[in-house]
Design brief:
The structure is a single chain. With 128 residues, this protein is an alpha+beta fold. The protein is globular and about 45 Å long. The N and C termini lie far apart (42 Å).
Length: 128
């Protein structure tokens, strides 16, 4: 596959991840997340794949996920993707919504089943 095609496949994996989080499609997320995933939330909470899937199922928080320009760098079977993200989420008590803006670093690995997420870290944006 050409490099541009691989970049497109990585971006498509991210599009699928976003849609699955909003739809709470745990089967799709299970396909997209590698078994050795490390997910670091904006709060510093760290989850492995099983913990993250349970967390998503329990919280059911995502209303929408918007990404800004994404930079995808390919290094063999590894892709490093960075860029801004804005999450609209339901508040814990369900009475309102929270907007979380930040910068995300994601690492994906090419597998026989396509690109899978192996690392995710969201750093919240703050005014300096």
């Amino acid at each position: 596959m050409m490099e541009a095609d691989e970049r497109g496949a990585v971006l498509e994996a991210e599009r699928r991840r976003q849609a699955a989080l909003v739809a709470i499609d745990l089967a799709e997320l299970d396909r997209l997340f590698a078994d050795d995933l490390t997910h670091v939330h904006s709060t510093g909470l760290v989850h492995d794949k099983a913990q993250l899937l349970r967390h998503i199922d329990e919280k059911r928080a995502f209303i929408s996920i918007m990404r800004g320009p994404l930079n995808v760098r390919l290094h063999g079977d590894i892709a490093l993707m960075t860029g801004p993200m804005t999450n609209r989420m339901r508040s814990k008590d369900g009475s309102g919504e929270i907007v979380l803006e930040g910068f995300v670093t994601q690492v994906l690995r090419r597998t026989e089943d396509g690109w899978k997420f192996i690392s995710f870290q969201l750093t919240p944006a703050r005014e300096s």
